[in-house]
Amino acid sequence: MTQQKQNGKLIAIITMIFLFGMISFVTNLAAPMGIVLKNQFSVSNALGMLGNFGNFIAYAVMGIPSGILLQRVGYKKTALIAVAVGFIGVGIQYLSGHSSPDMAFAVYLIGAFIAGFSMCLLNTVVNPMLNKLGGENGIGLLDIVENRLVGMKSRGVYETPGGAILYKAINVLETITLDKESAHFKAQLAQKYADIVYNGQWFTPLREALDAFADSLEKTVTGDVKLKLYKGNMINAGVTSPYTLYDEQTASFGVDKDYDQSDATGFINLFGLSIKERAKLSKNWPEVKE
Description:
Mean pLDDT is 80; it is low at 28-32. It is built from eleven helices and four strands. With 290 residues, the chain is mainly α. Strand 1 and strand 2 (153-159) form a beta hairpin. It is elongated, with a radius of gyration of 28 Å. The longest helix has 52 residues, at 45-96.
């Protein structure tokens, strides 16, 4: 790989992180805006919430045009257009503070709507980025023979680079944030959940119950994961979490207050008791015929 290509990918990754940060900031900033708008413009609760959702409503209008724009001009130009549109929207919102009382709220809504175009464009740029990076490295290729609900087998060939990367990242994160029993039980339920979805049983009480279990279990599954992508491989290059269950001192089996190696003697005796008893008693068993 040439140095130019490496630099290009590095710039793309940094840009993606920056865009994610912008989206997160704007989304979280919108949370208290309903009350702020109600008090600032002396409008009803309904209109205050309308001002809050003004930029999100733009998603319904700009979804398809954003995709078309991305195809025609590419990632970089679409991102630049998104930033420019965002500044225009924020500028119009600023002007609402200098408009007449009768027009101020209407001007703000127009600005929020235009700013929503920016958010939609940014999401359109960011979301396919993992597909682009993963696709270039042969990630997410799957050629399988499936068992259909009606009983027949069928071959399926899929390519989901972005989904494969996210799935791998979550699995890596779970290795340090889930305890053993929870992780094993989640793996058992995963097959059942996959069957429910595959068989079209989405709107069922069982699927809702499994979602509730997953939502509760995944509360502490958050952190940062680094993956290296190379020739179809996703290599764990580091994982951290504020909710980690991994303690290097304890895991090293060295001298530690939390772990006393002599405790293993009693554990081994108890854990192996059933095996020991079977071996002792089996000496007096009659011969078992094959």
